[in-house]
Amino acid sequence: MVKIKSAEEIELIRESALVVSKTLGMIASEIKPGVSPLYLDGLAETFIRDHGAEPGFLGMYDFPNTLNMSPNAQVVHGIPNDTPLEDGDIISVDCGALKNGYYGDHAYTFEVGEVAPETRKLLEVTKKSLYIGIREFRLGNRVGDVGFAIQQYCENHGYGVVRELVGHGLGTELHESPEMPNYGKRGRGKKFAEGMVVAIEPMINMGTRRIRQLKDGWTILTADGKPSAHFEHNVAIVNGKPQLLSTFQYIYDALGIESDEEEEFRQDKQTV
Predict the structure, then answer these.
(1) Short-list 163, 164, 168, 140, CA closest to 150
(2) pTM, full prediction
(3) Beta partners for residue 109, in sequence order
């Protein structure tokens, strides 16, 4: 069952999502060659707790850390370790926070130092596909409309769209109905309704869409060892249209990036 959220609940989810947004912004200024994912994970846990929330991932399904940190060929669910980041790496940082009984959950793939042009293009296409998908999350559309839009855009660029891992509903539970695949057919799947809140999160591979899992039971990698990118936002349907509850603006402020990509999804009294 999809849990429809009231206006008050959407604001509580937004509050949790913005804790995650601010955490990712803090992490952004710390990501550089020589820094270990485990060090960044410790910073994130402290930051989340200092902002009146609890790490959303820590202990869930026995996950041992605050962040999912997945460098290079790791797709998602990477466990932070003490291996220093290197120049030219990319790393997906997926973060969750629980505040006032509601979850925020989103992700950004960061460049570490100077990244190869073909890798940068993968990141650009994946992030753009996120907004292409969000545009389809509106009253009267269906789950398949979002998945189709993301899949078509990414496959047209020659990339592999992961099938086994999907986005999801969001609220008092981290993973609620409906599942939000990054592939699909137009007009298929559950119909969207006012007050729905979801996490949309393209996971896109430079090569094959196929994946494998490490023996740690968590880390997912591309089957061919090529890089993978992951971007995620939390979105609600408000007045029939998609409204972002999360933001990458804190990341952009930290990195000195100018962007207006979120403007069309900002409505009414939303502030960052």
Answers:
(1) 163
(2) 0.96
(3) 92
